[in-house]
Write a structure and sequence with these properties.
The longest helix has 24 residues, at about 1-25. The chain is elongated and about 80 Å long. About 40% of the residues lie in helices and about 25% in strands. The protein contains 14 helices and 17 strands. The protein starts with a helix and ends in a 13-residue tail after the last helix. It has two domains: about 1-290, Rossmann fold (3-Layer(aba) Sandwich); about 295-395, Nucleotidyltransferase, domain 5 (2-Layer Sandwich).
């Protein structure tokens, strides 16, 4: 009789907890997990800036940090030492700003250096409490930040919250990270959690002086992997010193550094999430970027082989990509990017995603020129096999001599 009663008590407890979660999460329109297969990829930084970006777009946002062993969100948002209040029945999340509520296990520790030593069942219990006992209220989005890997925390949340909108998966470009991210994507598939897209973080170092991009951890691996796995690619976020400074000082990067390339990349990541609510609102920075374009800001791509312009764009080893101001005829910055596989239609899309709007080549087939035109990229063909920088300078000064199309297939 006692065993039967215990089973009934367990069933009642499970039903009650499930009802509480449904009631609480029913007030949240969109629930999004931020995952990474590997540590050190900047996942929490991405999660925090996604949450802040959504709030900047007028959305009501909650940010839940479930990384019990290394909670980073309090540091990233300068909330260390804060402790949540209570209304007598529920825990009140910390109000970071208008439109953004935050909860982290870091707020519940007496000392930020205390180690949390919990096994799976304890983690599951605390996660239930964070979902049911925290007074999130009505939210447009709940962004949930997880520790690296596919362990107890993401598994618990995926099982506790039915109808999860999906996961944003963060990687860095090198194979060491990409291999673990593939496992993360398969994890989502097994739990029927849609993959909203992959973000390639630390995609290249932006020199603070000359703005040249150096691909410290390679480049393009996240996009290639996403294509292979059949999931969306949300964008590449470069390494910028301001991100490190903002993270250490607890100042949201996207708010305080809105004009940087990295902040623009974050906005690209957030656009599909805003589209969930049926209203992806243009930000002031979008207007700003249009003004920059009118002022003469462009990206010029040069296909190169052995340091010189390639006779045919599709057979090049890499691309030299220059940020230029055509109005003042000045090179603002430049980078080199390894050419992706030579597949039909891939290069125009790839260069379009990088923001290129001018390509200067030796030769190009008519069909390829049409594909570039569809991406809004202007094509100049018949350029000499010369030094890329010299070609760009000649182009800006209208002294570049173009010959015939060296290849038309």
């Amino acid at each position: 009789m006692s065993e039967e009663k215990n089973k009934m008590d367990d069933s009642l407890k499970a039903y009650t907890e499930s009802t509480e979660i449904d009631d609480c999460m029913g007030k949240v329109k969109h629930k999004i997990m931020v995952l990474s297969g590997k540590g050190g990829v900047g996942k929490s930084t991405v999660a925090a800036n996604i949450a802040v970006s959504l709030a900047m777009n007028g959305k009501q946002v909650g940010l839940l940090d479930t990384d019990f062993h290394g909670p980073s969100i309090p540091t990233l948002l300068n909330l260390e030492g804060k402790h949540p209040g209570t209304d007598g029945e529920t825990i009140m999340p910390i109000e970071f700003s208008e439109g953004l509520k935050v909860m982290s296990i870091g707020f519940l520790l007496q000392n930020k250096d205390d180690a949390v030593i919990w096994r799976g069942p304890m983690k599951m219990k605390v996660i239930k409490q964070l979902l049911t006992d925290v007074n999130w209220g009505n939210l447009d989005y709940l962004i949930i930040d997880f520790p690296p890997g596919t362990g107890d925390e993401p598994l618990s949340v995926a099982q506790l919250i039915p109808g999860m909108d999906g996961a944003v998966i963060v990687t860095t470009p090198q194979n060491l990270s990409l291999n673990d991210v593939r496992k993360c994507i398969n994890f989502c598939g097994q739990l029927s959690v849609p993959v909203l897209g992959v973000v390639e973080n630390m995609s290249g170092f932006v020199c603070p002086s000359c703005k040249t991009v150096i691909n410290v951890f390679k480049a393009g691996g996240g996009k290639t992997m996403a294509d292979e796995m059949g999931v969306p690619f949300l964008g590449s976020i470069p390494i910028e010193p301001q991100i490190v400074e903002a993270s250490d000082s607890g100042k949201p990067f996207v708010y305080h550094n809105g004009d940087t390339d990295a902040a623009k990349a974050f906005r690209g990541v957030v656009e599909p999430l805003l589209a969930m609510s049926g209203k992806a609102e243009p930000e002031a920075e979008t207007v700003s970027s249009k003004k920059e374009e009118k002022k003469g800001m462009h990206k010029i791509a040069i296909p190169i082989v052995e340091g010189h312009l390639s006779a045919h764009f599709g057979h090049c080893e890499e691309f030299a990509i220059f940020d230029v101001d055509l109005e003042v005829k000045k090179i603002i910055g430049q980078e080199k990017a390894p050419s992706p596989p030579h597949e039909p239609g891939l290069l125009p899309r790839w260069l379009g995603e990088k923001g290129v709007n001018i390509i200067i080549a030796g030769g190009m087939g008519a069909h390829a020129q049409d594909l570039f035109a569809e991406q809004g990229i202007t094509v100049s063909i018949g350029a000499p096999a010369d030094d890329p920088e010299k070609i760009v300078i000649s182009y800006m000064n209208s002294t570049l001599e173009l010959g015939g199309n060296t290849c038309d297939h």
